[in-house]
């Protein structure tokens, strides 16, 4: 590996021109020609006495003088150091001169922090949040590849592929792959997805419903809009074959409120005992997930959302069903 040496005018003959001969990863002292930010490395050579500055990709990097001898430097690559830089190198400046050595700072593997929505039909836009999405290569939902719409280093927008069962999302960049901890739904059973399930009926009180609304949609083409008076409720019921609650574990749906307020979620006409109360902030989508065990039901007969602030509200509901 070539070292570029530049002399400085200095009257002090105690300092010689620095020279870099090798770099090793400090954790196991293995020779490397590339590395990652926030890892410590051992730089070997000569003429390091009187070191003034160390640069990785032109970023002035902190070093502890205690870990510097004339032939060895221990130094950690700073978190702010760029990758995909040209030329990639480490540069050491001492009282005796300057040495530069080719060294690649590698792109870290990507990370996924969250994605939204959690469920949706084929083609729905899903936004994935995380870090280091640079040089994106692919996004998979299980074994099905998604269509990439756009991406930045912290956000990816894709069109979801057609899936049947809940799956994890895999993001692959030139630096590696990461798999999401959470699953993207294809709900196992839909009550509402662009239309009310034909086995279900609608029959709440004090509400007006639009089952093909386009004002606020969180997957597919339509959402269910329900305008609910204070303390009234939107309700749907199963008119088809009996549904065994033990076949599913979770009730899940997306909801968007036009006004701040509370809702009460209930099942099987129990409006007071085994219920869940949630607070909603206007103007944003929520994905609400409830354990079916919390509703203490053995079969699934009905589902209701009651306005629970007393002032009324307009809600948009999408991707309603069971996992």
UniProtKB/TrEMBL annotation:
| Pfam hit, one | TIG
Indicate the segments forming the IPT/TIG domain, all copies: 110-175
Quote the SUPFAM superfamilies the UniProt record gives: E set domains, Galactose-binding domain-like
Indicate what this protein is called per its UniProt record. Answer: IPT/TIG domain-containing protein
* Lineage of origin: Bacteria, Pseudomonadati, Bacteroidota, Flavobacteriia, Flavobacteriales
């Amino acid at each position: 590996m070539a070292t570029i040496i530049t002399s400085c005018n200095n009257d002090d003959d105690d300092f010689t021109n620095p020279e870099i001969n090798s770099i090793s990863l400090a954790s196991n002292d293995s020779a490397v020609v590339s590395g990652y930010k926030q890892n410590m490395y051992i730089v070997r050579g000569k003429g390091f006495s009187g070191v003034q500055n160390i640069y990785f990709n032109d970023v002035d990097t902190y070093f502890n003088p205690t870990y510097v001898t004339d032939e060895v430097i221990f130094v950690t690559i700073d978190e702010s150091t760029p990758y995909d830089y040209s030329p990639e190198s480490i540069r050491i400046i001492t009282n005796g001169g300057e040495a530069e050595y080719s060294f690649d700072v590698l792109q870290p593997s990507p990370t996924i922090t969250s994605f939204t929505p959690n469920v949706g039909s084929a083609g729905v836009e899903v936004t994935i949040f995380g870090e280091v999405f640079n040089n994106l290569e692919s996004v998979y939902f299980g074994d099905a590849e998604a269509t990439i719409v756009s991406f930045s280093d912290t956000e990816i927008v894709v069109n979801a592929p057609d899936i049947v069962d809940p799956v994890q999302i895999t993001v692959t960049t030139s630096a590696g792959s990461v798999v999401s901890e959470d699953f993207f739904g294809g709900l196992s059973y839909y009550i509402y997805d662009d239309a009310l399930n034909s086995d279900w009926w609608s029959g709440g009180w004090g509400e007006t419903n639009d089952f093909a609304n386009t004002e606020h949609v969180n997957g597919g083409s339509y959402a269910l809009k329900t305008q609910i008076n204070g303390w009234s409720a939107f309700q749907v019921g199963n008119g088809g074959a009996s549904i065994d609650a033990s076949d599913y574990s979770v009730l899940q749906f997306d909801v968007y409120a036009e006004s701040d307020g509370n809702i009460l979620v209930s099942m099987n006409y129990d409006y007071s005992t085994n219920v869940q109360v949630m607070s909603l902030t206007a103007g944003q989508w929520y994905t609400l997930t409830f354990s079916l065990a919390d509703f203490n039901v053995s079969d699934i007969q009905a589902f209701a959302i009651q306005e629970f602030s007393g002032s009324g509200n307009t809600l948009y509901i999408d991707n309603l069903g069971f996992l």
